[in-house]
Every structure is written in C-alpha cells, then in structure tokens.
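User: Before I run my own analysis I want an independent prediction to cross-check against. Here's the chain; please return only the structure tokens and, at the end, one sentence I can use as a sanity check.
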Amino acid sequence: MTEFKQTGMNDTANPVITQDALAHLGDGRLAYVRPIRSEDVANMFPQAPQIAPGLTLFALHAADGTPIMLTDTRESALASAWSNELEAVSVH
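Assistant: Structure tokens:
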C-alpha cells in the first residue's frame, strides 16, 4: 500500500510520498533518469574518477533515489534500465 505524507496548506492537491513508500514503489522494478552536472558526480558516485567540470551527464536512480549508474547519454541510461529489467519512468 502506498503511503502519502501530507504537508502544507494544500495537502490534498499536493501529497508527498514518503521515503519508505518510495523504497517499495514498483517492488524494486522502477527507475528514473536524471540529468546531473559533472561537478555533482562525486557526491552521488564517490567511487567515480574525477570528471571535467561543465559536463551534463545522466544518472539512473532507483525509485527511492538510490543512484544506480552514470553515463553520458540519456539513451544509455534508459538502455541500462531496460537491460536490468527496470522500468524507467518520467519524473517531472
């Protein structure tokens, strides 16, 4: 069951999903792709080598926000999701 935490004055119109609910969303089969700046890579992927600043890269994340992989194209991230039997969803 999905849990929603409601906050703010407009609670019903803008429910916020809890971290716990995200962890169970899609039963571990959902992922999303997010563009990131190369300057932010070390925070998400501490094991990654140093990357030149000013680049846009793409990170594949589990539904709960856990970073899974990093690549230089959105298409590669989506292909990685598909090859790992994950369903990539749009996040707005």
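Sanity check: The CA atoms of residues 7 and 15 lie 7 Å apart.
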